[in-house]
């Protein structure tokens, strides 16, 4: 049977999956229990266990678009200078080659490449370790094509919307505000004014239901150029917003800035 038909023939869920955006912050959150990790765990409370998870992480950028298609994705430790405890973490969730093949046919916006090399980077496993600690839900990652503009990414996300009705949980993992060059280690609990400005502006715009100003975030001015100096941590938010259908409930969690210029704000839609 055609794999796309298999996806389409999955039972329609009585209640569709929410769409999540998670501000993942430091990789150390993977091995800590704190207000942020508890917030992540609460995001999936009250929803049915997913049949699969598709994560769009800030840490997998490619030329073209790819999806992990191996049966057992490896845990990627894509960082350095952290304690050995963090490098020892393994998140041994299975993959789903069949779901990956179905996505290859579902997505029309891009020629989707089935990837057998990447795995799960810390934008995915550091978060899922707290949401699904048993690692018993199949996990796939969708890459970010760094050659494409924000509007293109939003439109690609819209093609994924039907997954919410099929028991697939789609997660964007990044940070609304992410500027590592301006981190304030001396006053970690104080946010720069421009960081607070953009974080609040983005939240208020999400509540309006109109994504276009968020897609054209550069027009927010100088504060945006500081808060979003490169797009890879911001774009996963657009994947979450692209899944929104009608006037769904929006909930903000972990709404706090760290080290002056990292927003931990997370969003649940639906």
UniProtKB/TrEMBL annotation:
<keyword id="KW-0223">Dioxygenase</keyword>
<dbReference type="InterPro" id="IPR004183">
    <property type="entry name" value="Xdiol_dOase_suB"/>
</dbReference>
<protein>
    <submittedName>
        <fullName>Dioxygenase</fullName>
    </submittedName>
</protein>
<feature type="domain" description="Extradiol ring-cleavage dioxygenase class III enzyme subunit B">
    <location>
        <begin position="34"/>
        <end position="266"/>
    </location>
</feature>
<dbReference type="GO" id="GO:0008270">
    <property type="term" value="F:zinc ion binding"/>
</dbReference>
<keyword id="KW-0862">Zinc</keyword>
<keyword id="KW-0560">Oxidoreductase</keyword>
<keyword id="KW-0479">Metal-binding</keyword>
<dbReference type="GO" id="GO:0016702">
    <property type="term" value="F:oxidoreductase activity, acting on single donors with incorporation of molecular oxygen, incorporation of two atoms of oxygen"/>
</dbReference>
<dbReference type="Pfam" id="PF02900">
    <property type="entry name" value="LigB"/>
</dbReference>
<dbReference type="InterPro" id="IPR014436">
    <property type="entry name" value="Extradiol_dOase_DODA"/>
</dbReference>
<dbReference type="GO" id="GO:0008198">
    <property type="term" value="F:ferrous iron binding"/>
</dbReference>
<comment type="similarity">
    <text>Belongs to the DODA-type extradiol aromatic ring-opening dioxygenase family.</text>
</comment>
């Amino acid at each position: 049977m055609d794999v796309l038909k298999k996806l389409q023939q999955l039972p329609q869920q009585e209640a569709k999956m929410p769409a999540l955006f998670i501000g993942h912050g430091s990789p150390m959150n993977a091995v800590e229990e704190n207000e942020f990790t508890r917030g992540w765990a609460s995001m999936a409370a009250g929803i049915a266990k997913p049949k699969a998870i598709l994560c769009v992480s800030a840490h997998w950028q490619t030329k073209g678009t790819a999806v992990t298609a191996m049966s057992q994705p490896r845990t990627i430790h894509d960082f350095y200078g952290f304690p050995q405890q963090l490098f020892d973490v393994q998140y041994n969730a299975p993959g789903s080659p069949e779901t990956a093949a179905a996505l290859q046919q579902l997505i029309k916006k891009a020629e989707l490449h089935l990837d057998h090399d990447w795995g799960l980077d810390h934008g995915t496993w550091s978060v899922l370790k707290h949401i699904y600690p048993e690692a018993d839900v199949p996990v796939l990652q969708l890459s970010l094509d760094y050659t494409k503009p924000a509007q293109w990414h939003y439109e690609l996300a819209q093609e994924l919307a039907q997954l919410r009705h099929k028991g697939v949980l789609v997660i964007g993992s990044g940070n609304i505000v992410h500027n590592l060059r301006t981190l304030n280690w001396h006053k970690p609990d104080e946010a720069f004014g421009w960081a607070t400005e953009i974080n609040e502006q983005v939240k208020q715009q999400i509540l309006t239901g109109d994504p276009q100003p968020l897609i054209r975030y550069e027009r927010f001015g100088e504060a945006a150029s500081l808060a979003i100096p490169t797009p890879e941590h911001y774009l996963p938010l657009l994947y979450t917003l692209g899944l929104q259908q009608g006037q769904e409930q929006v909930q903000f969690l972990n709404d706090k800035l760290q080290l002056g210029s990292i927003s931990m704000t997370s969003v649940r839609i639906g």
